[in-house]
Amino acid sequence: MTAALAASPPAVQSLPRTPASDVKKLGWRGVMRTVGREGRVLVTNHDQPEAVILSTDEYQRLVQAAESAQARQQDALQALRQRFDERLTALAADDAGARLRAAFAQPATLDGQVLAGQTH
C-alpha cells in the first residue's frame, strides 16, 4: 500500500481497487463488471486514489443511510427544543418573579455536596 493510500480513510483503503489503466484496457464494461460484483470500486492513478465508482444500488443505500442519520439528528434536535421550550414556559408564568425571589431568599443547604444541575 502506498503512502497516499495509507493516509486515506479506512473506508477507502478497504475498497476493491482497479488502476485507471484498467479502465482504458478493459473498457467501461470491464470496470462495471467489477462494480456489479463488488458494489463499488476505487480507481487509482499511480497508486493514488482518484475516484470511487458506485453501483446505483450502493449509491441508493448510502443516500438512504445519510437521510436516516439526518432524520435521527432532526428528531433529537426537536426533542431538545421541546424540553427547552417546556422549561422556558416556567419563566413566562405570572408568578415566575415571585418564585425566583423566594428561591434566592432561602439559604442554600448543600450538605457538603456541590450541585451542578438535575442530571449531575
From TrEMBL:
<dbReference type="InterPro" id="IPR036165">
    <property type="entry name" value="YefM-like_sf"/>
</dbReference>
<comment type="similarity">
    <text>Belongs to the phD/YefM antitoxin family.</text>
</comment>
<protein>
    <submittedName>
        <fullName>Type II toxin-antitoxin system prevent-host-death family antitoxin</fullName>
    </submittedName>
</protein>
